[in-house]
Amino acid sequence: MRIALFTETFLPKVDGIVTRLRHTVEQLQRLGDEVLVVCPEGGLTEYKGAKIFGVPGFPLPMYPELKLAIPNPSIRPELEAFQPDLIHIVNPAVLGLGGLYYAKSLKVPLVASYHTHLPQYLQHYGFGMFEELLWGLLRSAHNQADLNLCTSTAMVNELTAHGIERVDLWQRGVDTEMFQPHLASRKMRDRLSQGYPDAPLLLYVGRLSPEKEIEQIRPVLEAIPDARLALVGDGPHREALEEHFAGTSTHFVGYLRGLELGSAYASADAFVFPSRTETLGLVLLEAMAAGCPVVAAGTGGITDIVTDGANGYLFDPSDDAGAVRATQRLLENRVERETLRSNARIEAERWGWEAATRHLQQYYRQVLTSQTMPSAA
Description:
Blueprint: E1 2-7, H1 16-30, E2 34-40, E3 46-47, E4 50-55, E5 57-60, E6 63-69, H2 75-82, E7 86-90, H3 95-105, E8 110-114, H4 118-124, H5 131-142, E9 147-150, H6 153-161, E10 167-169, H7 186-192, E11 201-205, H8 218-223, E12 228-232, H9 238-244, E13 250-254, H10 258-267, E14 270-273, H11 282-289, E15 294-297, H12 302-305, E16 313-315, H13 322-332, H14 334-348, H15 353-372
Parallel strand pairs: 1-2, 1-7, 2-4, 7-8, 8-9, 9-10, 11-12, 11-14, 12-13, 14-15, 15-16
Antiparallel strand pairs: 3-4, 5-6
């Protein structure tokens, strides 16, 4: 198959969507398909054998790491030369709408996927009054696709409830080679804890932005006086978070990648994740693959991954003390913590990227087959 992938974000950006896409592109190419990635310009022209066509864009004022790329006529000759069998648009917002247009114009089957729970994000940026308007825009875009994919059953149900049609589940995936328990090291604990490797070490990995609700970790930190917190990642909310966590044992680590990131996960005592807007929560799977016990808000896509008391702990995000109690329980019971570590790794091992990509290929073939079948008389 020849797949043209339109995405609002790709390398060199670092986030969960990019992680899924780069593994998907690599696996598709490895399995014999050809991929063209149409994305905001970022300097790359190729990735794992797939051509990258960069569209000029400009940084978003509130989030300069993200580029807004406007579809332009240069895309058509690229698509006509590539001759895609199928177009897949990821989080259609601006550039993705160009993919939708060209799918209709070139009469190519269209798949769309939903990865960022934008309607809930509005609440965290002070634009909650526009939530229904945004759902309407999402419906009008997604309902033009032959198939809409979500990364968790919670999102399948939510999109369906809001009138989006032809919705199905795209299997989760995680790099179980990169993230492994044996990468735990005292040296990394020393680095993350700023010289206190014997103290309880709490970890957060991900975007530093309002919708992640990272502020909710401070009461956990205050309830466990000798604990240290490492925040791995960066984003538009960093300055506000530095002010919020002033006077606490919090280390803003910045980005970690590859084996360093794997070692950070494996070396921590607890991965604390208070976000209520996750369509899946890929970082949770990464932490679990590394054997790091997870304490997470029991909402959205997270409940597809974490089974409370079996491979992690879930808490009610509406309970102000929920995260505190769950983290205290985890740290106070060493035997139970080791059981959670083991079970978390076992769960992650079920979800390799090759299996997730073969699952996606099945959807692609179903869409292509339905397009070529003769209609009933």
